[in-house]
Amino acid sequence: MDKEKLASFGIGIGTGLLIGGILGILYAPKSGKETRTIIRDKAVKVKDKVAGDIRAIRNKARIDDLKQS
Description:
- The chain contains two helices and no strands.
- It is mostly helical.
- Helix 1 packs antiparallel against helix 2.
- The protein is elongated, with a radius of gyration of 16 Å.
- The model has no long low-confidence stretch (mean pLDDT 84).
């Protein structure tokens, strides 16, 4: 799998997780304040996960580039 496809796959997974999490929370029977807090917390977790995935993809791409040199 080339770098661009791998990066696109990671972004797609992260986006899907974010949307699915938000929809799940919005349909849960909680107050507005609780729901906003949960959404904020989940969004931060997903952002951190996606950032970590992107870093891992970049690191792997760098290693692959070094191996090819």
